[in-house]
């Protein structure tokens, strides 16, 4: 199927309640424009420079989500335009986002990335670290960031029971934090291979790359 047809299919399947982030990392602007012309306005990238280059070339009504691990010294390049930083995985990064947001006279929306997968290699905060961060005095002083929810990546597996258990764990944490943080509204979980299960477990934002744009050569 074409990129346009894939966008239409996902829009229809997801409806109004689940936001589709079209993960366009490694793909050329011409591919992104096909998605744009099919009505897609939210794109996800995992490298700051690549996102910045695409942002400068493409229509300005696009919302750009940073979905990958970010080095602190790169935050300044995306601070003027990024719509949502989905993968905040340390207090030091959040502090830098606050600083750069302030310089740009903006409030930048962020999600905390929580480690839910089995593999150690994946970035993310533990549940304990996230609790501590949200309760810290420093956090209350970050006036130019708004933490609006959580993001997680499940283990790369076909084991449905395991996926469900990882996603539902994140959903429970999200519900828990929501009680004390009224700004919480986004639970970003689910990718091409597992978005259906993620939605069943309570996701309201899915990050879909290969099922829209086709396989990537590299990550
Ligand atoms: C690449 C990536 C995705 C999309 O993966 P697909 O399997 O191609 O849908 C989603 N989330 C993150 C954090 C990614 O890096």
Question: Could you name the key traits of this structure?
Answer:
8 strands; globular; binds pyridoxal-5'-phosphate
What would you say this structure looks like, in words?
It is a single chain. The chain has 219 residues and is α/β, with parallel strands linked by helices. The chain has 10 helices and 8 strands. The chain has helices at residues 3-14, 29-37, 48-57, 75-78, 91-103, 127-135, 137-141, 160-180, 195-200, 210-213, and strands at 19-23, 42-45, 63-66, 84-88, 108-115, 145-153, 186-189, 205-208. The two termini are 22 Å apart. The mean pLDDT is 96. The structure holds pyridoxal-5'-phosphate. The site of pyridoxal-5'-phosphate has 14 residues, from strand 8 and helix 10.
Q: Care to give the gist of this entry?
A:
The protein is built from ten helices and eight strands. With 219 residues, the chain is of the alpha/beta class.
């Amino acid at each position: 199927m074409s990129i346009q047809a894939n966008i239409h299919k996902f829009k229809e399947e997801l409806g109004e309640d689940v936001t589709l982030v079209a993960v366009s990392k490694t793909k050329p602007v011409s591919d992104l424009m096909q998605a744009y012309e099919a009505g897609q306005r939210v794109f996800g990238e995992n490298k700051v420079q690549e996102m910045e280059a695409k942002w400068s070339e493409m229509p300005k009504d696009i919302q750009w989500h940073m979905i990958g691990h970010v080095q602190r010294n790169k935050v300044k390049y995306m601070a003027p335009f990024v719509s949502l930083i989905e993968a905040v995985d340390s207090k030091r990064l959040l502090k830098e986002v606050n600083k750069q947001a302030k310089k740009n006279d903006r409030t930048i929306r962020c999600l905390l990335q929580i480690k839910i997968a089995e593999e150690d290699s994946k970035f993310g905060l533990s549940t304990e670290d996230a609790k501590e961060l949200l309760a810290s005095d420093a956090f209350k002083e970050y006036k130019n960031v708004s933490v609006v929810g959580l993001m997680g990546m499940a283990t790369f597996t076909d084991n449905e029971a395991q996926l469900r258990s990882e996603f539902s764990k994140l959903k429970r944490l999200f519900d828990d934090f929501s009680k004390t943080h009224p700004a919480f509204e986004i639970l970003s979980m689910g990718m091409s291979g597992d978005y259906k299960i993620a939605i069943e477990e309570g996701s309201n934002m899915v990050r879909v790359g290969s099922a829209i744009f086709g396989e990537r050569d590299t990550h």
